[in-house]
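Running co-folding for S-adenosylmethionine.
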Amino acid sequence: THFGFTSVSINEKERKVRQVFENVADNYDVMNDFMSGGLHRYWKDELLKMTGVGPMAKVVRRRASLNYAANSDLKSGDGMNGKAAVLFSILDVAGGTGDIAFRFVDAAKCEERSKSSGSDEISVTVCDINPEMLRVGESRARKRFGSAILDETCALKFVEGNAQYLPFDDNSFDLYTIAFGLRNVTDVDMALRDAYRVLKPGGRFLCLEFSHVTNLPLAKLYDLYSFNVIPQLGQMVANDRDSYQYLVESIRKFCTQEELVSRMETAGFEGVQFTNMTGGIVAVHEGWKP
Ligand code: SAM
């Protein structure tokens, strides 16, 4: 039947995506630099700027220290009312090896504060369907920030889960990010609805994803690069042509900037808009849960 066929192809996609990211987990970060000529760092930095997390962390800290001044029983660095309060919680879905989450931790200087106070005003949760990617991410986090941030303060967490059925309560997060993840999800609309569910009212959704190039000469060059060069590079560097062929195809099949806007609106988001970067090679979509 038609339904039988659909469900087989969905499972097929899930299996394929899992296989791809298991294959690439160990090389993932090197290959990202290699394939994008380092551009992915710039795109991720821009995403971070849009979240405002760096400047916001300062405001939160200032509020906490004003609170401290008003109540001399509190130790410096304690959260509001002397409790280790998390004032801003971030969920990074399809967070893989932690690139986006680490930018939040750096911007908010979570690890410095956790050393001095044992409390954190910002918490970052990385959620990914693939345990291999999470394993690489956790070990990078330990090297980069030390283990306390994972084991003691829990300002940074790695959680296995599917974007379509997130293992979190309704209204849990202030910010939801997903970078180069949405196109890998089998049912994009379901992932958007679940993003909406876990965000608090007033929470913000930000998606960084490959999109559709808007400028014709650039589109031609980009086609040439992605169909000819990328699978070849995948073969040469990682001995894995198929995974990188999948990467290119999944980018082509993914919806346009405008389609994603309307799908986000259907999921309930308000104030939906997008910003193209590098001529539309990638775009950031944002929306708010009212
Ligand atoms: N966000 C990271 C970054 O920008 O470097 C990783 C992006 S990587 C291209 C895509 C990630 O999506 C992989 O780690 C993969 O395991 C994850 N993924 C694929 N399908 C998923 C799903 N249904 N739910 C959660 N994560 C998923």
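Result summary
The CA atoms of residues 90 and 175 lie 5 Å apart.
The first helix runs from residue 2 to 24.
Job closed.
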